[in-house]
């Protein structure tokens, strides 16, 4: 799988990936389900489903509806809590690390204290994690979530709270707004990398019943429809910070992944496509390698931010 | 904990796809590997080709499978854009599906069983009825539909060697007039059951579950939810539990012990 002619390995803020393909949190379970479709260890990294220190129930049904070229979800970070997470998935995830795929554990919280507690716990319980992704951008929770990353000041406070609690790389998952300003604030507080974008807050109304099509009024939009918004935001953020970026948003082909790299992303996460077409990620990796070869480079890192815009 | 990834992707070919009622279609696919694996009550998540702007798969349970011929029979209602496009597939067309998804019916020998289906819940209930007959049980079947033209499965139910087959339509255009629960109450007063299986509209299943629970009879219900992946990766198909919290329809279900569900 790995190209003979192009170096595909990248370094996402200290997370050394054998290729740039990662998976977006919440679209990949905790990885093991995908072993029924392909060898997950072909990927550069996986990012686990957001998990807090204590269990969260998430939102009532319905949590998903389909709209044009996208889905909307309002899962609300349902998770079993750090202890049950490690007990249930730790062995698989440690094995995956051993097979050469970096495991990035996503951490959620409702407050600064909860983020800190979760990072502390995972730092102790999850020695297999190559790094942590701090989710300050979930649009589907009433407390915490996107509110924690809404302004440069709020985002910086989260980063300041968690930075001293782990020596492993910390990636911050950003909301789809003000990415340059918030990115600079996170970089200043010691974030090792940024991942963007989270889903875009959106709304779908059943015109017959006049009710939301989901259990909450608004939900997160993801899929091909958001891809080019995400590319623009990665490009803006890349122009604002020096730390590496992971591009996320509607990637369903190697060309989509290549756009993120050209816009300035070091790594690229496959998201919704994992759910609708579970063999997407290895196909996208293979297409990305072919593209890098076609560009005549020896190292994919030479293409990061290489868009001539 | 052992994490067993049992859902795989398979290609399939359409053998036939015919209209059997008003907006109701019977699809037979050739998918030999899955036909020998899939159990009654499990489901498949279909990719319907032809429109890239619709990215979500269509989860469907099945009425019968035949390991000998490698075919699986499904009956579905064309209610949304995905199922409408599915109804356009012709013999020889192909696509892919994910399966076998979820846990099916818990089929074991025992006394008399009652199988209650409403609307598009008929196929998995018939699959359960067939398995229960094969397990040596006497099986009664109740089929409910809005109206006669949207009813499917009476002939198949009769062919199973079922005990009694009762049909209800909401508008009285065929069989008994009213909801399936009327027939269920009638059968419960006449017979002694030790198992009820049901699939159909949530309201119907909840009512059937109550009747069974009041009588102290085990009830298995196959639930439907809006679903994205079908294999436990997205947490979108949550089912509220009576004890609090949620379970995943795709992995913990679609067949649940009705007592555990918060109807």
Automatic annotation (TrEMBL), chain A:
Cofactor: how bound: Binds 1 FMN per subunit.
Single biological process term from Gene Ontology: 'de novo' UMP biosynthetic process
Domain Dihydroorotate dehydrogenase catalytic: 9-290
EC number: 1.3.-.-
Domain of life: Bacteria
Keywords: Cytoplasm, Flavoprotein, FMN, Oxidoreductase, Pyrimidine biosynthesis
Cytoplasm recorded as keyword: yes
One GO cellular component term: cytoplasm
UniProt enzyme class: oxidoreductase
GO MF assignments: dihydroorotate dehydrogenase activity
Cofactor(s) in the UniProt record: FMN
Residue sites binding substrate per the record: 49, 73-77, 135, 198-199
Catalytic activity: (S)-dihydroorotate + A = orotate + AH2
A Pfam family this chain is assigned to: DHO_dh
Cytoplasm in keyword set: yes
Reported function: Catalyzes the conversion of dihydroorotate to orotate.
Family per similarity comment: Belongs to the dihydroorotate dehydrogenase family. Type 1 subfamily.
Name of the protein this chain belongs to: Dihydroorotate dehydrogenase
Species the sequence originates in: Parafannyhessea umbonata
Lineage of origin: Bacteria, Bacillati, Actinomycetota, Coriobacteriia, Coriobacteriales
From TrEMBL, chain B:
Amino acids binding FAD: 82-83
Binding site for [2Fe-2S] cluster: 229, 234, 237, 250
Cofactor note: Binds 1 FAD per subunit.
Organism encoding this protein: Parafannyhessea umbonata
Annotated ranges, domain FAD-binding FR-type: 7-107
Lineage, uppermost ranks: Bacteria, Bacillati, Actinomycetota, Coriobacteriia, Coriobacteriales
Record's protein name: Dihydroorotate oxidase B, electron transfer subunit
InterPro entries noted in UniProt: 2Fe2S_fd_BS, Cyt_c3_hydrogenase_gsu, Dihydroorotate_DH_ele_sf, Dihydroorotate_DH_Fe-S-bd, FAD-bd_FR_type, FNR_nucleotide-bd, OxRdtase_FAD/NAD-bd, PyrK_electron_transfer
Cofactor or coenzyme needed: [2Fe-2S] cluster; FAD
Domain of life: Bacteria
Family, similarity comment: Belongs to the PyrK family.
Keywords for the protein's UniProt record, in alphabetical order: 2Fe-2S, Electron transport, FAD, Flavoprotein, Iron, Iron-sulfur, Metal-binding, Transport
GO biological process: pyrimidine nucleotide biosynthetic process
PANTHER family: DIHYDROOROTATE DEHYDROGENASE B (NAD(+)), ELECTRON TRANSFER SUBUNIT (PTHR43513), DIHYDROOROTATE DEHYDROGENASE B (NAD(+)), ELECTRON TRANSFER SUBUNIT-RELATED (PTHR43513:SF3)
Molecular function, one GO term: 2 iron, 2 sulfur cluster binding
Signal peptide limits: none
């Amino acid at each position: 799988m790995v190209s003979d002619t192009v170096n595909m390995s990248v370094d996402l803020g200290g997370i050394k990936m054998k290729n740039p393909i990662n998976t977006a949190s919440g679209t990949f379970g905790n990885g093991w389900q995908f072993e029924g479709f392909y060898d997950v260890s072909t990927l550069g990294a996986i990012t686990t489903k957001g998990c807090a220190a204590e269990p969260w129930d998430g939102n009532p049904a319905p949590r998903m509806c389909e709209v044009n070229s996208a889905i909307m979800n309002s899962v609300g970070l349902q998770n079993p809590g750090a202890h049950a997470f490690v007990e249930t998935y730790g062995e698989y995830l440690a094995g995956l690390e051993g097979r050469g795929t970096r495991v990035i554990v996503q951490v959620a919280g409702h407050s600064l204290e909860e983020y800190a507690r979760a990072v502390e716990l995972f730092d102790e319980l999850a020695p297999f994690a190559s790094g942590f992704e701090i989710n300050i951008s979930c649009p589907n929770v009433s407390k915490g979530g996107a509110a924690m990353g809404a302004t440069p000041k709020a985002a910086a406070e989260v980063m300041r709270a968690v930075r001293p609690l782990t020596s492993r790389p910390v990636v911050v998952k950003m909301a789809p707004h003000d990415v340059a300003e918030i990115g600079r604030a996170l970089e200043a507080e010691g974030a090792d990398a940024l991942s963007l974008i989270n889903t875009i807050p959106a709304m779908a109304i059943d015109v017959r019943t006049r009710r939301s099509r989901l259990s909450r009024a608004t939900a997160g939009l993801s899929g091909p429809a958001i891809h080019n918004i995400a590319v623009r935001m990665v490009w803006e953020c890349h122009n604002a910070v020096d730390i590496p970026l992971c591009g996320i948003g509607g990637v369903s082909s190697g060309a989509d992944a290549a756009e993120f790299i050209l816009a300035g992303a070091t790594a690229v996460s496959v998201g919704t496509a994992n759910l609708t077409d579970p063999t997407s990620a290895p196909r996208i990796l293979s297409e990305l390698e072919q593209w890098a070869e076609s560009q005549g480079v020896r190292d994919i890192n030479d293409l990061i931010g290489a868009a001539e815009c | 904990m052992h994490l067993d990834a049992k859902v795989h992707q398979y290609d399939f070919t359409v053998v036939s796809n015919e209209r059997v009622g008003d907006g109701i279609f019977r699809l037979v696919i050739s998918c030999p590997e899955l036909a020998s694996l899939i159990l009654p009550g499990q489901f498949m998540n279909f990719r319907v080709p032809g429109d890239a702007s619709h990215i979500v798969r269509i989860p469907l349970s099945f009425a019968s499978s035949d390991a000998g011929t490698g075919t699986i029979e499904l009956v579905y209602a064309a209610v949304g854009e995905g199922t409408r496009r599915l109804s356009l597939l012709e013999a020889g067309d192909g696509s892919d599906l994910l399966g076998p998804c979820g846990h099916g019916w818990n089929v074991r020998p025992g006394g008399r069983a009652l199988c209650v289906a409403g609307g598009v819940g008929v196929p998995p209930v018939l699959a359960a009825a067939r398995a229960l007959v094969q397990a040596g049980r006497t099986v009664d079947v109740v089929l409910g539909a809005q109206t006669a033209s949207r009813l499917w499965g009476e002939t198949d139910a009769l062919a199973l060697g079922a005990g009694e087959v009762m049909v209800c339509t909401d508008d009285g255009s065929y069989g008994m007039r009213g909801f399936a629960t009327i027939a269920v109450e009638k059968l419960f007063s006449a017979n002694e059951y030790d198992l009820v299986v049901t699939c159909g509209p949530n309201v119907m299943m909840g009512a059937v579950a109550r009747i069974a629970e009041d009588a102290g009879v085990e009830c298995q219900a196959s639930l439907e939810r809006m679903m994205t992946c079908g294999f436990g990766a997205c947490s979108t198909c949550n089912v509220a539990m009576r004890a609090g919290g949620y379970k995943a329809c795709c992995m913990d279900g679609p067949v649940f012990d009705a007592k555990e569900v918060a109807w």
